[in-house]
Automatic annotation (TrEMBL):
This is DeoR family transcriptional regulator. GO terms for molecular function: DNA binding; DNA-binding transcription factor activity. Residues 31-86 form the HTH deoR-type domain. InterPro entries: Carb_Metab_HTH_regulators, DeoR-like_C, DeoR_HTH, NagB/RpiA_transferase-like, Tscrpt_reg_HTH_DeoR_CS, WH-like_DNA-bd_sf, WH_DNA-bd_sf. Keywords: DNA-binding, Transcription, Transcription regulation. It comes from the Bacteria.
Length: 281
């Protein structure tokens, strides 16, 4: 039986914002710190645009381009049209990278909030998807817990960061989501237990959570079945889009993190969840 706890109680450090409540971009005191942040981002994503780096770092376009030229001269990145790419081929598909850049600011805020709410020694399952991937990107350096995942990009980033322990769930690769799915993936969850599942979705409405294909559903349900709490991570676009396959109703969800309030009719239902809805960004 799933137990609930106060949403993010005692574990969330509020980001510094201005008088309007907007979160400021990260700023680094020295160029080496800034360039390391660029390297970490590129290693995780495979490709990052100059525009995105300017927004993340809170510096000018000229400063970012100067840092990129320095990193390229040092043989650490490759400058390409519009941005920078990792030297070694990324496991991400162009489709995954493109989705990651849609609503990127909201996904980053959601991922950071979800990561801050985790205990540093937690065992956490991270679902496939670009919003849940943002949570993996946001795991702090002092995280010494275990990550369970079927997402190839999450596994890749975990290897890059040298996490203490990662449990990868194998199976048949679904190119569209860059994740393993199918009976072997489901079977791989047998005997596992996680504190929290960070769940992604293609769409949500008052009836529940939806995914794009039937292939995804069994693996997501298997991950849900091994989790003490299930936190749904969705950006605002998921409230207004649709997807064909119903994954589950709201009764299965512990809490929601989003970058915008849900529509009124849905908000009433989500307010009944054990941890409610947390709006960030």
């Amino acid at each position: 039986m799933r137990t609930s706890r106060p949403p993010y109680a005692g574990s969330v450090k509020q980001p510094v914002g201005d008088a309007m409540g907007e979160v400021s971009a990260l700023r680094y005191d020295t160029a080496p710190e800034r360039r390391q942040s660029i390297l970490d981002t590129v290693e995780g994503a495979g490709f990052v645009s100059v525009t995105e780096l300017t927004r993340r770092l809170g510096v000018s376009d000229m400063t970012v381009r100067r840092d990129l030229r320095k990193l390229a001269r040092d043989g650490r990145v490759r400058i390409v049209h519009g941005g920078v790419s990792a030297l070694r081929p990324a496991l991400h598909s162009p489709e995954f990278t493109g989705r990651a850049e849609e609503h990127a600011e909201g996904k980053q805020a959601i991922g950071e909030a979800a990561a801050r709410a985790l205990d540093s020694r937690a065992t956490v399952a991270i679902d496939a998807g670009t919003t849940t991937y943002a949570a993996m990107q946001a795991l702090p350096p002092d995280f010494v817990g275990t990550v369970v995942t079927h997402s190839v990009p999450v596994m890749q980033l975990a290897l890059t960061r040298g996490l203490a322990r990662v449990v990868g769930l194998g199976g048949e690769l679904l190119p569209s989501s860059q994740a393993f799915v199918g009976p072997r993936t489901v079977e791989a969850t047998n005997g596992l237990r996680v504190d929290t599942l960070l769940l992604g979705a293609a769409a949500v409405d008052k009836h529940g959570i939806y995914v794009s294909t039937d292939n995804e559903r069994p693996t997501k349900l298997a991950l849900m079945g091994i989790a003490e709490r299930i936190v749904l991570l969705v950006d605002a676009s998921k409230f207004t889009t649709s997807a064909p396959v119903l994954l589950c109703g709201w009764d299965a969800i512990t809490g929601v993190v989003s970058d915008a309030p849900p529509p009124p009719a849905m908000a009433r239902r989500l307010a009944e969840l054990p941890e409610g809805v947390r709006v960030v960004g």
